[in-house]
Inverse folding.
């Protein structure tokens, strides 16, 4: 497959807003947020850690989203999803007060929950290209569920989310943390994401939350024509950069974006 290499910094389409409701007919029917904001906030409040943050968590998230917007993140649907998902529910009690800072935090097993700005940026990229022209991304594969935060955000934007995690205790933890949010369109899979997830391929979007030295061939194989993949990857200079691959009728187009810092992509399973 031809892979013309375009080296770009910051794709202009990243700021394009998602086209909002289309008729539910056709192969790419529109997705609505899964729960109204108020409901998400009340669920978050009910399960809040005893720090008092939960009761006002919608307000704290709103301020975080304002900061993300000020930093240049402009995809309104992505920002709305981030405003709805209670990130403090996905971190340990002792870290709850940092949950709405733009920082990655430990989630155990040597792994981290990604920075909100990086989650927003990657999903913004994922929803660009042909997915933006289609108005949405229908079926998404996430590699690296971790605690499930990004999967919960994705579930508000895509019709179906499949998320693979190789560390069993994290897979179990994500299942537990996502359950109270009553997300019905995300499936968590315990497996080696380097192999993708063939049963539900092809995907309109593939997003990796762990960075390797080379792109696993299975990801490209499982990307739909018109689909887009976003993944951290090591470049020739040894830096980890965000790479976007658009699969078209003619082959794959690759663009390279900003430097990032993700945990390593590893093969095999951890029990
Ligand atoms: N999506 C998370 C980020 C988790 S950190 C969030 O919402 O913040 C990245 C995760 O990728 C880790 O949990 C790590 O175990 C996982 N990972 C690394 N290599 C993997 C592989 N080959 N298959 C599946 N998961 C993998």
């Amino acid at each position: 497959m031809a892979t013309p290499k375009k080296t770009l910094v910051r794709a202009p389409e990243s700021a394009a807003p998602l086209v909002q409701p289309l008729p539910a007919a056709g192969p790419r029917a529109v997705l609505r947020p899964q729960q109204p904001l108020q409901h998400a906030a009340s669920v978050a409040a009910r399960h809040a850690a005893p720090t008092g943050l939960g009761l006002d968590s919608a307000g704290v998230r709103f301020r975080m989203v304002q900061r993300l917007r000020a930093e240049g993140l402009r995809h309104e649907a992505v920002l709305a999803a981030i405003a709805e998902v209670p990130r403090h529910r996905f971190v340990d009690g002792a870290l709850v007060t940092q949950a709405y800072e733009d920082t990655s935090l430990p989630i155990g097993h040597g792994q981290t929950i990604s920075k909100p700005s990086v989650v927003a940026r990657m999903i913004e990229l994922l929803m660009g290209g042909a997915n933006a022209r289609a108005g949405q991304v229908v079926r998404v594969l996430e590699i690296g569920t971790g605690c499930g935060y990004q999967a919960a955000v994705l579930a508000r934007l895509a019709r179906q989310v499949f998320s693979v995690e190789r560390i069993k205790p994290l897979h179990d933890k994500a299942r537990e943390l996502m359950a109270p949010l009553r997300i019905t369109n995300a499936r968590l899979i315990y497996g080696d994401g380097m192999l993708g997830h063939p049963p539900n391929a092809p995907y309109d979007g593939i997003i990796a939350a762990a960075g390797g030295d080379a792109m696993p061939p299975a990801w490209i194989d499982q990307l739909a024509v018109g689909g887009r993949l976003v993944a951290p990857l090591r470049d020739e200079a040894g830096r980890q950069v965000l790479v976007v691959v658009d699969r078209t009728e003619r082959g794959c187009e690759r663009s390279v974006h900003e430097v990032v810092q993700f945990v390593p992509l590893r093969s095999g399973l951890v029990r």
